[in-house]
């Protein structure tokens, strides 16, 4: 083993290292004794950005033979994207156009496929078509005609003019209306009324109502709606003739108006509901209260104290 090499730095410091590291130790010790000069800032190596970068161009990419250019929207740069995020721009317009065209074609084919299906059940939409046709023409549309005239899409903001199985507070705006029409439905298991404030016909079901009673209530509601719509122009003219009517008198006049229509609709329903059911069966229609999706509210008989 070779003897250790000693490097004498001063009278007060001696470093002993193994022979293989002697030269490295000497170099480190010498560097530690030489005062270091302050570090100088390196020369600037920044290069001016190319003209394309000033215009927002980032790079060009080719994928499977298709080229995509990426642009950055920052400052005065022109291009697509926000917050320095790179987005594909080149063929994106063509891709979006193709996707929109294919989506429209898919929706159209799906709509035609739904239209081609002929159902023999009377849901709310087809029930409305059948009753309206019966009131206006006296005939029930065939299965194909009823399905073709059905409204498939109902937006949420569309105003519903008929409500079945409604609650008392929704249907009546004051007790006078309820007391006025109650005698008309003593022998029925439902009640039908019109709320002028909400412009909607309500069919209220009693707790004894069965399947046929619910269907009859829906039929009666559409008959009443037909009378209300037929006299709508006349009622508007009547309102315009009254300059500043008292609120209670004006409300009472409107009540008298639709109460007369309710009484008239009761006569029509009692004589035509059986004919409506017979003609609907002849056309192959199947009616059920579950298809009409009535509400769960029911009117209970008052118990004497």
TrEMBL record:
Domain Protein root UVB sensitive/RUS: 94-137
Residues in Root UVB sensitive protein C-terminal domain copies: 140-294
InterPro entries per UniProt: RUS_fam, UVB_sens_C, UVB_sens_RUS_dom
One Pfam family from the record: UVB_sens_prot
Similarity comment: Belongs to the RUS1 family.
Full protein name: Protein root UVB sensitive 6
Annotated organism of origin: Zea mays
Taxonomy of the source species: Eukaryota, Viridiplantae, Streptophyta, Embryophyta, Tracheophyta
């Amino acid at each position: 083993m070779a003897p250790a090499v000693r490097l004498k730095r001063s009278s007060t410091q001696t470093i002993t290292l193994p022979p293989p590291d002697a030269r490295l130790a000497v170099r480190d010790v010498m560097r530690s004794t030489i005062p270091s000069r302050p570090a100088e800032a390196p020369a600037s190596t920044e290069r001016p950005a190319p003209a394309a970068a000033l215009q927002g161009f980032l790079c060009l990419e080719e994928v499977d033979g298709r080229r995509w250019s990426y642009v950055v929207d920052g400052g005065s740069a022109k291009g697509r994207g926000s917050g320095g995020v790179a987005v594909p721009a080149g063929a994106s317009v063509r891709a979006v156009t193709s996707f929109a065209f294919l989506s429209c074609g898919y929706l159209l084919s799906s709509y035609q496929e739904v239209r081609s299906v002929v159902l023999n059940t009377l849901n709310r939409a087809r029930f409305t078509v059948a009753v309206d046709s019966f009131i206006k023409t006296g005939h029930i549309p065939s299965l194909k005609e009823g399905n073709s005239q059905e409204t498939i899409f109902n937006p949420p903001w569309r105003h519903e003019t008929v409500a079945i199985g409604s609650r008392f507070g929704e249907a009546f705006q004051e007790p006078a209306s309820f007391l006025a029409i109650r005698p008309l439905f003593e022998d029925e298991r439902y009640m039908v009324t019109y709320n002028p404030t909400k412009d909607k016909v309500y069919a209220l079901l009693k707790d004894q109502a069965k399947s046929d009673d619910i269907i009859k209530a829906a039929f009666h509601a559409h008959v009443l709606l037909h009378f209300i719509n037929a006299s709508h122009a006349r009622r508007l003219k009547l309102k315009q003739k009254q300059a500043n009517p008292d609120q209670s008198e004006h409300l009472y006049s409107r009540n008298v108006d639709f109460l007369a229509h309710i009484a008239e609709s009761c006569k029509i329903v009692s004589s035509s509901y059986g004919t409506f059911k017979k003609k609907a069966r002849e056309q192959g229609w199947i009616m059920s209260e579950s298809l009409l999706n009535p509400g769960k509210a029911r009117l209970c008989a008052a118990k004497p104290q």
